[in-house]
Sequence to fold (138 residues):
Amino acid sequence: MLSRIEQSFEQLRRFTADASHELRTPLASIRSVGEVGLQKDASPEEYRDIIGSMLEEINRLTSLIDSLLTLSRADAGQIPMKLEVFPVAEIMEEAASLLDVLIEEKRLTFSFEGEKNALVRGDRLILRQAAVNILHNA
Fold:
């Protein structure tokens, strides 16, 4: 019983660390867009663009939170892994699209080199989150 309790606390610690790390970037982006928008007088259209940019980040944040909750449930054994075979390039493209705003803000480029048809067997959601983490940390 103590082992299970210790394992639960370890899962909670891991989830908290992962969530903090993953949520920091979109929140910083929303804050910076909002602060820059407030520092200048802008036309209604410019304000609309600023709000639109913030809403895009909020959508990404919502998606990220859903992913973190799913990963947390999977880590706790509450969700069985859904194993499937698919091209690894798909995961990399999905991960890069989730980070498009960050990549653009940092004036970076992303390209995937390798065998485009290389297959991987695993849980798509978990592998995509791993790819997002790797790209974000890079």
